[in-house]
Structure formats: structure tokens, C-alpha cells
Write a structure and sequence with these properties.
single chain; binds zinc ion
């Protein structure tokens, strides 16, 4: 964690948001958006996914995005990789941090990637072995997000013991850090608190990645507060909650970056991010995706009168 912030907000809109909508945002427009996001003070952005462009044509330009985004000073550029092939492509493009989603739900895993969770853990081991064979300066960080960690649209309840056991296996497989993802928007604050406390107990604080939360059922920010109570310090979010939820019109996808930053700063936790600059980034996003539905309460009504950021900086 950089010294001047308390909480790392990791923007996932260009990946999680854009892959959830049908339209493809042109590469130039994506780059303008990523630059506007970085200009707001965001330190980490997941710019895309190294998946087959047949499966997700929206993500076909990921290598070009990594190359360009790597030029932005002070920014950690993240990309999703589903398997070893994706990791090889991501590393060849110069990606410094890889994120691999591994599903705790057997049905979700089989349906999504045609592999059992155990086979997916083996794939993480292969990626880490490939990484470890590279010269030190070329080795990226490998982060794993355990998806459907709080429930699954196919299976319903997912065993909490299994999720924690998986985290231990992933740690042994070589993952640098492991986080929990509420892919389906099933989590509640009590569960978040319990599971992150158990995760820390299993893998240790130094290997703990953050919380990836969706706001599908309106629990997003409540879940953030619960995670803060057990010292989670990294949160994924998406500008404008881009992506939505195909099953619940009006419900956002990821938690909304603008609302998250406002809440954290108002609670006295420094993010290094400027809300007004995020609102400019919304306009840049909509230039590239005209009329796309985006969300957020703070952008609708503005910051409260006299609002000051956690570091005592006044809002402009
Ligand atoms: Zn997600």
C-alpha cells in the first residue's frame, strides 16, 4: 500500500464493466477513458482480459491497452487471464500484474471454463510455474480472485469451508495474493466479515487481496463497511457501476467507484482519488459508449456542501 493512502480502490470497469455489455468500445475511446480514470488518482486499473477474442470480442485489444496504459506514471496495470495461454500473452504484452478468477462453485466453474475447481487450481499452479521460470524482472504478480465465494446462481449456497480450503490450496500453488469475489451479488455484511476474517487466518494478512463486490441486491457498500471492520484494504469497483445486471434491470454491476470513494473519504480513509475527476471520467466513458446505462448516487446529486476529503483537501 502506498504511504499516502489508506485504501486501494482498484478500478475494474474497463474489464468487468465492458465485458458485461454487448457493444465493443473502440480502443481509442477505451484509452481516453483509462487516462481519465488514472487522472482522478486511481492507482490500479484492470484494463481488460486475455481471453479468446472469439469468446469476448470486447476484450480483443487487451495487449494494446496494456502497452499504452503501462506508460501512465504511478499506475498498476492489471489484466485478467483465464489460463496459461492467457498468462503467456499477458506477460508478452508487458502486464505486471495478472488476476485469475477461480470459481468456488463446481457448476459455475464447469459452465464458465469447462473445468472443475480442482483443475482450475492446477492451472494457477502452471501459471505460477511459468512465471517463476522467467527472469526476475519479467515476473508479474499473480492474484487470484475466488469467484462465487458467497453464493452461486446455479448452486445457491457455496460451502464456506471449501472456499477457505481453496484459498489455502491456491496459496500453496504459488499465488501471490488471494481475494474473495461476490460475483453474483449474494453476499451480506455478516458473511463478508466472517469470510475475510477466516481468509486472513488461512493465508495470512500479507497474502490477502481485496474484496470484489457487486451491488446486484443493493448490499455493495454495506459489504464494504463490513470488510473494513476486518481490515480489508483493497476494493474493486467500476466507474458508474458499468455493466449492470442482466437479470435485474436498474441494478448496478460492480459497486460504483464514485460512491465508494465518497464513502471512504467521508469516513476519514484516504484513497487519493478526486470525485470531481471521476465525474469527468464518466463523461469520457459516455463519449465512447453513447447512451450506455451508468449508475451512482453521488454523481446524481453531487458532493455534500463543505465536503472535505480525508486528507483535509477541500472539494473543488
Ligand atoms: Zn465482477
Amino acid at each position: 500500500m502506498p504511504q499516502d493512502i489508506d485504501i486501494l480502490v482498484s478500478e475494474v470497469g474497463p474489464r468487468d464493466g465492458l465485458q458485461s455489455i454487448k457493444r465493443t468500445m473502440p480502443t481509442e475511446a477505451k484509452l481516453k477513458w483509462i487516462k481519465a480514470l488514472a487522472a482522478s488518482g486511481l492507482r490500479e486499473i484492470e484494463v481488460g482480459s486475455f481471453v479468446s477474442s472469439r469468446l469476448l470480442p470486447q476484450m480483443a485489444d487487451c495487449a494494446a491497452l496494456v502497452k499504452e496504459a503501462n506508460k501512465i506514471e504511478g499506475l498498476t496495470v492489471l489484466a485478467l487471464v483465464p489460463n496459461l495461454k492467457g498468462a503467456e500473452n499477458a506477460i508478452a504484452a508487458g502486464t505486471r500484474k495478472l488476476t485469475m478468477p477461480i470459481s468456488a462453485s463446481r457448476a459455475h466453474s464447469l459452465n464458465n471454463i469447462g473445468k472443475t475447481p480442482e483443475e482450475a487450481i492446477e492451472e494457477v499452479r502452471r501459471v505460477c510455474a511459468f512465471r517463476d521460470a522467467l527472469p526476475v524482472e519479467q515476473r508479474p504478480d499473480v492474484e487470484v480472485g475466488i469467484s462465487t465465494a458467497f453464493g452461486c446462481t446455479f448452486e445457491g449456497k457455496v460451502s464456506e469451508d471449501w472456499v477457505i480450503e481453496m484459498a489455502g490450496l491456491l496459496s500453496k500453488a504459488g499465488a501471490d495474493s488471494i481475494g474473495l469475489s461476490d460475483t453474483t451479488g449474494y453476499a451480506n455484511p455478516a458473511q463478508i466479515k466472517r469470510m475475510f476474517a477466516r481468509l486472513r487466518g488461512e493465508i495470512g494478512a500479507e497474502k490477502m487481496a481485496g474484496a470484489h463486490l457487486h451491488n446486484t441486491r443493493g448490499q455493495g457498500l454495506a459489504n464494504v463497511v463490513a470488510a473494513l471492520e476486518v481490515d480489508v484494504t483493497t476494493f474493486d469497483s467500476s466507474l458508474g457501476g458499468l455493466g449492470g445486471c442482466p437479470y435485474a434491470p436498474g441494478a448496478t454491476g460492480n459497486i460504483v467507484t464514485e460512491d465508494l470513494v465518497f464513502m471512504l473519504e467521508a469516513m476519514g480513509l484516504r484513497t487519493g482519488i478526486d470525485v470531481d475527476a471521476l465525474i469527468i471520467a464518466r463523461e469520457v466513458l459516455l463519449c465512447g459508449l453513447p447512451n450506455e446505462a451508468i449508475y451512482g448516487n453521488v454523481p446524481e446529486v453531487g458532493l455534500p456542501k463543505g465536503f472535505t476529503y480525508a486528507g483535509n483537501k477541500s472539494a473543488t
